[in-house]
Amino acid sequence: MNLHSSTSKTLWGTAVTGIAIIVVGLIASMLNYGESILWLGLLILIMSPIFGVIVSAVSLFINRDYAWMTVALVLITMTAASIILAAYL
Amino acid sequence: MEPVLMIALILVGILAGVMGALFGVGGGMVIVPILTIGFGLAAKDAVAISLVGIVATSVGASSVYVGKGISNVKLGLFMEVTTVFGAIVGVFIAMYVSNLAMTVVFSIVLVYSGYRMIVNSGKDVELTKEPGKYHMSYYDETEKAYVGYNIHNLGKGAAISTVAGVIASMTGMGGGTIKVPVMNMYMDVPMKVATATSNYMIGITAFAGAILYFVMGEVDLMFAGSVAVGGFVGSMLGTRISAHINGKSLRKYFAVLLFVVAAIMLLNAGGSL
């Protein structure tokens, strides 16, 4: 599992999915169907960088590059902690 | 939202995306001034929208650069640990800081970024095949060969990344204008790699701030969605343009633009306009 290839495909896939849903959501919002679709698309887009980091961690684990895998896991943990902190504010 | 307004926001995103892909920045230095000066948004609202736009521009460009191996994923992950911490701190600081103060901070960052772009058009890093402790390599399309380099001063780079993260959350900028010269000048990373790696990093930095604003309900969805669509499209265009543009000259012209924008924002904040 190549680190760069898997990370690139994940970034591309989630971003394109998010953008596509955003476009549908913008049209739906302008037609007064609410903003729930738009909200979902933005959430997927915003999450795409962290999805890339998760896939990178998996790739590093598969390739037995445990030092850099640890760095990726620390980053994921810190990011998750910040989201949980925000949920309680 | 009026269709004309949406089209205008998409064009703003495209401009930011192209600039972001070319210079390794998130495009916030374009998005925030236009949203505040052109659309009359408060600085905090513009920052929240900008962070979403930065995610879009970053992911668009980095998906290409990472795939080509130009973005150093490992280096990016390492520096992001401290940057994310800074970004989280910056969000909470921004909640209690006035619009005027945020405008002043943003303008100072613009002036500094412009100064760095003019006086440091890119350090000539010694490329080597001799492996050091942190030896990396990438395929250079212009050289048609793999080129190697050794990374130094990881600790210093990580520390400065923390500051970049705070600024990113407070100003809506992805911190790329700080990280690119840091990687190139202090860590001996080739300019092309520094730019591409910055594109990868700023998406993660912006995510940390954007998700907090998003969860707190601070993001205008229509504005953010329009800017994000434009940003993604612009970043795709920028990655294709980057191979055909003299980066040194364009970088200097862009620096002048940063000075002009900073001056306009400061005058506007002071009520002189």
Explain how this protein is built.
The complex is a heterodimer of chains A (89) and B (273). Chain A is mostly helical and 89 residues long. Chain A has one domain. Chain A is built from 3 helices and no strands. In chain A, helix 1 runs antiparallel to helix 2 and helix 2 runs antiparallel to helix 3. The longest helix of chain A is centred in the N-terminal third of the chain and has 28 residues. Chain A is flat. The N and C termini of chain A lie far apart (39 Å). By secondary structure, chain B is mainly alpha-helical. Chain B has one domain. Chain B is built from 10 helices and 2 strands. The two termini of chain B are 27 Å apart. The model of chain B has no long low-confidence stretch (mean pLDDT 80). Classes of the chains: A mainly alpha (89), B mainly alpha (273). At the A-B interface, helix 1, helix 2 and helix 3 of A face helix 3, helix 4, helix 8 and helix 9 of B.
**Major sheet details of chain B:** 2 strands, antiparallel
How would you describe the oligomerization state of the chains in this entry? heterodimer
Biggest contact: A-B, 46 and 46 residues
Percent in strands of chain A:
under 5%
Structural class of chain B: mainly alpha
Output the helix-strand order of chain A: HHH
Number of DSSP-assigned strands of chain A? 0
Apparent shape of chain B: globular
Mean pLDDT score of chain B:
80
Taking the alpha carbons of the first and last residues of chain A, their distance comes to 39 Å
Distance between the termini of chain B: 27 Å
Helical residue percent of chain A? over 70%
Number of strands of chain B: 2
Question: How many whole angstroms does the radius of gyration of chain B measure?
Answer: 18 Å
Radius of gyration of chain A in whole Å, from Cα?
Answer: 16 Å
Residues in β-strands, percent of chain B = under 5%
Question: What value does the average pLDDT of chain A take?
Answer: 91
What series of H and E elements makes up the topology of chain B? Answer: HHHHHEEHHHHH
Which parts of chain B are unreliable, with pLDDT below 50 for 5 consecutive residues or more? none
